[in-house]
Amino acid sequence: MTKNWKHSIAASIAAVTMAVTAGCGSSSPATQETGPGNGLDKELNVFNWSEYLPEEVIKKFEDKYGVKVNYSTFSSNEEMLAKVSAGGGIYDLTVASDYFIQPMANQGLIEPLDLNNIPNIKNLSEEFVNKDHDPGNKYSIPYMGNTVSLAYNPDNIKTEINSFEDLWKPEFKSQIVMVDDQRFILGMVLKTLGYPGNDTDPAHLEEAKQKMLKLMPNIKAFDSDSPKTLMINGEVNIAFVWGAEIALAQREKPQIKTVLPKEGLMLTFDNFVIPAGAKHKKTAEAFVNFLLEPEISAEIAKSFPYINPNKEARKLIDKATLDNIAIYPPAEEMKRVESLKDIGDAIKLYDRAWSEVKSSQ
């Protein structure tokens, strides 16, 4: 679930260096415990977004391989980055969005993968592997992707919504829930101004900040964990949230309508990466390989219907999910989709603008 890159990696380099040193010292054979007969360790420490992996799937891995999975979650990228940067080999596996991969790799925050331990990478569609952010998938394996999509309940919102620009209408006061994600939200505002969603021009970002401040009265809540709840409960009637959250809300309220905004959507993909100093690297790779099994990947998609890059799993996913435009925008729409990109030091401009927006609440 992507998500915001709110900390400079460079600021964490000292901590990362210590982490790598500590990790190297702790991964000797004398300190690793192995599982029964499979060459894997007895435990695995996984750090993931909340509501992103079913407990039943974790249990199946534990039962199959005799590995205890210590599973913890984060609700923002800044939380994940802070804990991973602290190092010490606390986590063996975490999730990072595509535009994080190269910056993290360049600063030594993540380790190269041994793809020999992940043969199920063959199940991934060609369009999702060997991307510019990680040629050859040296550091990352695609997990799930998403757009931040737009939806509303026409039972309670009588004004038709066709664009992001409509969100500023005064009759929508306190009617909107949005993901708590600076890149997606400021990107959306930039697009309403006719700029790219990855724009780094300081003047354009200032313009976007001022426009976003005008939207604040219409926003009931920022929620990246479970924004569907507010839609289902009727506390809000408009959502700018992960596409899967819209789809899950539609299971409870089928009348909720997905909008393909005239400005075009933005997209990102989450990927599994191994933090520097991970103590159970081979076991982490076995876990990723397990999740790429078609039946397992399809089971994940049933509970959390994000964009699934697994071509074999898609054969097992129900047609209603695959046809839901909140999850899988139609082909013509995908031609207009803009992927979030690494913007380097310009992230500081986003940080500043977002901080000023949030402080106005």
From TrEMBL:
Q: Does the keyword Cell membrane apply?
A: no
Signal peptide position in this chain? 1-22
Can you say what this protein is called? Spermidine/putrescine ABC transporter substrate-binding protein
Q: Name one Pfam family in it.
A: SBP_bac_8
Taxonomic source organism: Brevibacillus choshinensis
Does the record's keyword annotation contain ATP-binding?
no
Keyword annotations for this protein, in alphabetical order, are: Periplasm, Signal, Transport
Compartments (UniProt record): Periplasm
